[in-house]
Amino acid sequence: MKNHSELLRESGLKATIQRLSILEILQGTGHSTIDDIYVTVREKHASISLATVYKNIEMLLEKGVLAEVPLAGRKSKYEIKKHDHIHLICQVCGSVEDETMDAIPQEQLTRIAQKDDFILSQSQINLYGICRNCRQ
Amino acid sequence: MKNHSELLRESGLKATIQRLSILEILQGTGHSTIDDIYVTVREKHASISLATVYKNIEMLLEKGVLAEVPLAGRKSKYEIKKHDHIHLICQVCGSVEDETMDAIPQEQLTRIAQKDDFILSQSQINLYGICRNCRQ
DNA sequence: TTAAATGCAAAAAATTTGCAGACGT
DNA sequence: ACGTCTGCAAATTTTTTGCATTTAA
């Protein structure tokens, strides 16, 4: 597992405390909204500005360090980009869990896209329902 | 194909001109953002308010008449709810096309969700890439 | 040293709310 | 006629921008 400073520098970005904090938080939670991140970073670095969080998320998305997870009926969450996977999204609490794509091979998706002459670059599979905790 | 007035009444909603227009537009385009809808309804019913579009989209989502299609890096689009299908999302122009889920059986997704004790209620498969038109 | 990044405050954009009047049933 | 829905204007929330100052390399 690559450390965050390296990851940032490889992407042509300075390894600031703010950016490292954002990555640590995302590493910890897996998926967070902008506000989640802002509130949490604040606990350590009280002076961080919300504008800085916005600017950094945007920059990290552009550089491909993060991926956006857009959610129906909620604000988007963000995650550190990794190989394709499936999201299990709880409609009650909004939690997001990951599952492997093992059961759904990439070629299968590529083939579907080809039917429409569509060049596939990225897949998002989101399964909405109720998580273990919320069904009590 | 059920007509829109019926559809609305069955959902316990009055069939207003505004709502019928919204449904017609979505029927025509397949997928539209709030602003797309607002601008287009306006051409016929110049007096419609943006607030009315917001309120109606929310109401129609609640009643299950519409579904939200949340998109990475863009505003959500909305569609008339139909059986599960795959979205091909163009990263250049933002267009959304539908494809059938034939190749990916429901049970397969249900099984993936079960691994996490997750009760599946709805699936969204979004394939991002470049559409036929945009790769010219 | 110096280009890039931060934090602030202000601006802009997006969404929500409350309510008087209009409309569908 | 009645309760729902609309349109407006105002309020709120979210996101973006510009710029002076700070900071990583």
Defining traits:
homodimer, 136 residues, alpha+beta, Arc Repressor Mutant, subunit A, Dna Ligase, domain 1, 2 domains, 3-stranded mixed sheet, two-stranded antiparallel sheet, 5 helices, 5 strands, 39% helix, 21% strand, DNA-binding
Q: How would you characterize the overall build of this protein?
A:
- With 136 residues, the first copy, chain A, is of the alpha+beta class.
- Chain A has two domains: 4-80, Arc Repressor Mutant, subunit A, CATH 1.10.10.10; 86-135, Ferric-uptake regulator, C-terminal dimerisarion domain (Dna Ligase, domain 1, 2-Layer Sandwich).
- Chain A has five helices and five strands, in the order H-H-H-H-E-E-E-E-H-E.
- In chain A, strands 4-3-5 form a three-stranded mixed sheet.
- The interface between A and B is large, with 41 and 41 residues.
- The first copy, chain A, binds a DNA duplex (25 and 25 nucleotides) through residues 9, 13-19, 34-35, 47-52, 54-56, 59, 75.
Derived from helix and strand composition plus strand pairing, the structural class of chain A reads: alpha+beta
| Low-confidence residue ranges of chain A | none
The CATH homologous superfamily of the largest domain in chain A is called: Winged helix-like DNA-binding domain superfamily/Winged helix DNA-binding domain
Query: What's the level 1 CATH class of the largest domain in chain A?
Result: Mainly Alpha
CATH topology of the largest domain in chain A: Arc Repressor Mutant, subunit A
Q: What shape does the CA trace of chain A take?
A: globular
Largest interface: A-B, 41 and 41 residues
Identify the CATH architecture of the largest domain in chain A: Orthogonal Bundle
Strand tally of chain A: 5
Helix content of chain A: 25-40%
| N/C terminus separation of chain A | 35 Å
Topology order of chain A in helix (H) and strand (E) letters = HHHHEEEEHE
Strand order of the largest sheet of chain A: 4-3-5
Quaternary arrangement of the chains shown? homodimer
User: In DSSP terms, counting alpha (H) and pi (I) runs of 4 or more, how many helices of chain A?
Assistant: 5
Give the C-alpha Rg of chain A. Answer: 17 Å
User: Proportion of β residues of chain A?
Assistant: 15-25%
